Amino acid sequence: DQQVKQNSPSLSVQEGRISILNCDYTNSMFDYFLWYKKYPAEGPTFLISISSIKDKNEDGRFTVFLNKSAKHLSLHIVPSQPGDSAVYFCAARSGGYQKVTFGTGTKLQVIP
Amino acid sequence: NAGVTQTPKFRILKIGQSMTLQCTQDMNHNYMYWYRQDPGMGLKLIYYSVGAGITDKGEVPNGYNVSRSTTEDFPLRLELAAPSQTSVYFCASSYSRQGSSYEQYFGPGTRLTVT
Q1: Side-chain half-sphere of A48: how many Cα atoms within 13 Å?
Q2: Residue A1 burial by CB count (10 A; 0-12/13-18/19+): exposed, middle or buried?
Q3: What's chain A's Rg over C-alpha atoms?
Q4: Cα-flanking dihedrals φ and ψ of residue B107, to 5°?
Q5: What are the CB-based long-range contacts (under 8 Å, 24+) for B48-54?
Q6: How many CB atoms lie under 10 A from the CB of residue A70?
Q7: With an 8 Å Cβ cutoff, is B100 touching chain A?
C-alpha cells in the first residue's frame, strides 16, 4: 500500500517556465510534508517543507501548496533553471515519529 | 562539518557473503536512518534509531541488522547477502527539535551489487 504517490515519473519543462510536480497521499495522519531533490550519484537533499496546518510555503523560486481535503500537494518552481534538473521526492511524516514515507520520485528535465 | 559520511561507495558481494556498511554523522543528530533505493522506486526505510542504544525496524528490515553504540555511528550489517539486496543504500540523520521541519540529511550512498 503506497501511502505517498507521485504519479508522473518524469517531466520536461523549458527553461524560464514553471515546473509543477505533484504528490498525492492517503494517510490523513501525516502532519508534515517535505520535498527532496536528488542528483545522480548523490544523496537526496532537503528542499522545502510544509506543515499540515498551512496551505502554502514559499522559499525563493520554490513554493509548496497543500490541499488537505484532496490529500494533494504540489511543488512549483518558477522560473525553472537547467540546474533544477534532478529527481524530486515527495515525503510525508506521521505525527510523533521521525519516520517519513517517500514517494517514488519525479525526474525533472529543464531544457535550456 | 562533513555531515553524513558513508563507506564504501561501491561494493560487489558474492551470494552468502556478509558485510557492514558504515555511516557516521558529525551534526550531533539523535535520529539516524538506513534506506534502500531500488531502480524506479522511492526510498524504503530499513532500520532507524532514536538515539544511542535504541534501534527499531522500518519497512524492509529482513536480512539486515543495525547497532547504535554512539550518537555518531550507525552501521548496517548484511548477513548472508542475496541478489535481492542489490540496491543503493542511503544513511540519513535528523534532529528532533520543536518547530523544526524534521528534514533529514543524507549521505552520498553505497551502491551494492550481490552476484
Answers
A1: 19
A2: exposed
A3: 13
A4: -80, 175
A5: B48/A98, B48/A99, B49/B74, B50/A98, B50/B96
A6: 9
A7: no
Which grid coordinates are listed for B100?
523544526
Is the pLDDT reported for residue A69 higher than 90?
A: yes
Residue B115 in grid coordinates: 552476484
Parts of chain B with a pLDDT under 70: 98-101
Q: Do A43 and B107 make contact, defined as CB atoms within 8 angstroms?
A: yes
Chain A, window 16-75: residues with a beta carbon less than 8 angstroms from a chain B beta carbon:
32, 34, 36, 41-46, 49
Residues of A in contact with B107 (CB under 8 A): 43
Burial class from Cβ neighbours inside 10 Å (0-12, 13-18, 19+) for residue B106 reads buried
If you write DSSP's letter for every residue of B51-109 in order, what string do you get? ETTEEEE-S--TTEEE--SSSSB--EEE-S--GGG-EEEEEEEE---TT-----EE---
- Tens of pLDDT along A32-62? 999 999 999 999 999 999 999 999 999 999 9
- Name the phi and psi angles at B11, rounded to 5: -160, 140
Q: What does DSSP assign to residue A96?
A: T
Give Cβ neighbours of residue B61 (< 8 Å, ≥ 6 apart): B46, B47
Q: Give the per-residue pLDDT at B97.
A: 72
Is residue B55 within 8 Å of residue B68, measured between CB atoms? yes
In sequence order, what are the beta bridge partners of A11?
Answer: A108
Contact criterion met (CB below 8 Å) for A102 and A6:
no
